[in-house]
Amino acid sequence: MGIQKPAWLEALYTQKFFAGCSYHETAKKNEKNICCLDCCISICPHCLPSHRFHKLLQIRRYVYHDVVRLEDLQKLIDCKNVQAYTINSAKVVFIKKRPQNRQFKGSGNNCTSCDRSLQEPYIHCSLGCKVDYLLKLNKDLSPFLKKCNSLQLSPDFLVPLSDTGDEEMTSDQTNPHSTIVDCDDPMSSSSSGSSGSENMSMSMNMGYRHHEIVRKKRSGLNYASLCGRSAHKVSDEDMASSMISRRKRIPHRSPLC
Q1: Close Cβ partners of 150 (under 8 Å, ≥ 6 residues apart)
Q2: How far apart are CA 18 and CA 34, in angstroms?
Q3: In what side-by-side order are the strands of the sheet with 85-87?
């Protein structure tokens, strides 16, 4: 007797996708949108380290139904005569049957299992419909199954960052030094001659401009910091100098005649 349904195909029908992962309840983006074909279970992106050497199939959503990419599914089973749909420039195939609200059978092509109206020359609206048709007709799926040794996720699959502040670490790594640190670095030690003097003068100019900007910011009164009594307190001399700087000039009295 031939193979009726392999274990991975049964998992596509029985496993629940796009539900929260019980192992990563507190993690962000923990929806189970991956099917591990070796373990025959649904996993979330945070479970990938434990299944990195297994055959993985990404599950997608299209009009509230589970779909898979036709390119990936063709590596596992013959998808001939199954109608495919295009989402995000990729052809996808529905996994399960889609029951219709009303019984309507058009004059054109219809699905072999659910009588859904299809385009020419397709005769199956989903993978489940074709499997049921083949089992009813041949009672054997062996001629239609393909040997697949490895199946990895598509390049457009996004692995979410962990909740340990990886986003902040990434931004710091892209620009690990601030402007103040760059100005204080002894750039002349890594270069010599004219290039070293030019770098030193450039760093001094940058430091002077940065110092001038800071002085300008400090020259104006920050009422929010004064009212809130922040950690950076303004002294009486700074307040007096800032008040004087806001005035155009010191008025002079006219001479007595």
Answers
A1: 55
A2: 9
A3: 60-62, 65-69, 90-94, 85-87
C-beta pairs of 149-153 under 8 Å, 24+ apart in sequence: 150/55, 151/37, 151/55, 151/56, 151/57, 151/72, 151/75, 151/76, 152/56, 153/34, 153/56, 153/58
Torsion of the alpha carbons at 83, 87, 88 and 92, rounded to the nearest 10: -40
Residues in CB range of 76: below 8 A, 6 or more apart: 8, 37, 57, 145, 146, 148, 151
**Could you tell me if 179 and 210 are in contact, meaning their C-beta atoms sit under 8 angstroms apart?**
yes
Q: Is 181 helix (H, G, I), strand (E, B) or coil?
A: helix
> What is the CB-side half-sphere exposure of residue 138 using CA atoms within 13 A?
13
Show the low-confidence residues of the chain (pLDDT under 50). Answer: 163-198, 200-201, 203, 208, 210-211, 213-234
To the nearest whole number, what is the mean pLDDT of the chain? 73
| Alpha-carbon gap, residue 118 to 56, rounded angstroms | 30
Q: How many angstroms separate the Cα of 234 from the Cα of each of 211, 213, 220, 242, 247?
A: 18, 17, 11, 10, 19
- Give pLDDT tens digits for 167-182: 333 333 333 333 333 3
The H helix count followed by the E strand count for the chain is: 8, 9
| Sole residue written with tokens 């397709």 | 122
- Cβ-based neighbour number of residue 79 at 10 Å: 20
Please return the burial class of 68, using the count of CB atoms within 10 Å of its CB with bins 0-12, 13-18 and 19+. buried
